[in-house]
Predict the 3D structure of the following.
Amino acid sequence: MLKAENIKLSFGDNEILKGINLEIKEGQVVSIIGPSGSGKSTLIKTMLGMEKADTGKALVLDKIMPERKILGNIGYMAQSDALYEALTGYENLEFFGQMKNLKGEKLKEEISYVAEVVDLSADLKKQVENYSGGMKRRLSLAIALLGKPKLLVLDEPTVGIDPALRRKIWRELYKQRDNGVGILITTHVMDEAELCNKVGLLLGGKIIAFDTPKNLKEKNNVNTIEDVFLTVEVK
Ligand code: ADP
Ligand code: MG
């Protein structure tokens, strides 16, 4: 699904990614956790071809990124919402759906499905400038889900989303995963990392551990991913 090979990237003298290798297979949810500023968003953008790596490469669905032809297979949710504030929620979904070549009845069906997943059905007629931060996050997630992408890349998708809805979103992510979708998320919510098939710890420009939550906890002799993180951070 997605493979990063020895990706290095600096901004000026600041070496952010120091040789990242990472793989996400179909039917897997993989999370990247790491402190703020550790390069999670930069890694995602580099893998999707939105930042140019100094060395290394990323492959999505066996194609070297960036590759325009497969962008339609990727549902990307950026860390900061890129929405049209003057349009309604519905109009935003319509616009991004059309960009993914959805039209007519199919477009309508998909909009009502993704809006339901993020619990925005009742708010679609409101202008986005009147949405709360959490509602905007939910709309961005709905947009990423449009068009049934094979790969979902979600940068901190559940920030500002309340626990009940967060659970609902996770149910949907599992459903997608069980249909063979590959999912990469970044999160700083440690208990969300527990819900993933594999967790990568990004620290000092490197993925210093990549394993199942269970193995990570056993190896470090702790009970939670938060403790794994604290343990390796100090080392
Ligand atoms: P994270 O998502 O883990 O919080 P980021 O990937 O956003 O971290 O940022 C990693 C580091 O790279 C930070 O120090 C940030 O200031 C820096 N950075 C990110 N984007 C740019 C850019 N376009 N130009 C210069 N520095 C950047
Ligand atoms: Mg980030």
